[in-house]
Design goal:
single chain, alpha/beta, Rossmann fold, ten-stranded mixed beta sheet, 6 helices, 10 strands, globular
């Protein structure tokens, strides 16, 4: 099952996806956090959730390093072929080991309009039966459906965990597994 976690630009989707991974305590994937130096935005990275290993992913066009290995340009950014390959390796490993849920942050115009960036990762993931959380701008959820030919479940980043358990119920680990299983089988919606 593919679950889209929606939100607007700068609304906290990346932080939410990191929190989701920590809350569930299972699965793996990557997020694309902003990198700042001295309070100034520098670039986006791809960061693996389980190891914190990262690669520089996208620089604003006006500040691309001279040794940059550019795959493509879209809008005001240059995207790294090395980082996209890093993301592909992560997802290939998770698919091969059947680790779920797979967490991908985020799909946007680069993938949906240009069929670039993480597009092939999503296509490969959709050939499996593995569960995944994918963040996307709220306004692009219909475009995702059209681009990939599936109808995912859509949740707002603010409404995922609404189940309360009385004291003395499942342990924290059991609760995480219960939540993931309820999401996976659709009963949480």
């Amino acid at each position: 099952m593919i679950i889209l976690v929606t939100g607007e630009v700068n609304e906290g989707k990346t932080n939410y996806m990191r929190s989701l991974y920590r809350e569930l305590g299972v699965g793996d994937g990557f997020i694309c956090p902003k990198v700042f130096e001295n309070g100034e935005f520098i670039r986006y990275d791809i960061r693996r959730l389980s190891s914190d290993e990262s690669q520089a992913f996208a620089y604003p066009l006006e500040s691309v390093p001279s040794d940059w290995n550019e795959k493509c340009r879209f809008g005001k950014y240059s995207f790294s072929s090395k980082a996209i390959h890093f993301a592909e390796q992560i997802i290939d490993e998770l698919i091969e080991q059947k680790i779920e849920p797979i967490i991908i942050d985020e799909i946007g115009p680069l993938e949906i309009e240009n069929h670039d960036g993480f597009y092939n990762i999503i296509k490969k993931l959709l050939k499996t039966q593995l569960g995944a959380f994918i963040s996307i701008r709220r306004s692009m959820s219909d475009d995702f459906e059209n681009a990939f030919g599936i109808e995912p479940r859509i949740i707002s980043k603010r409404c995922l965990w609404h189940t309360n358990y009385p004291k003395g119920m499942p342990s924290a680990h059991e609760l995480k597994l219960i939540k993931w299983n309820r999401i996976h089988d659709g009963s949480i919606f």
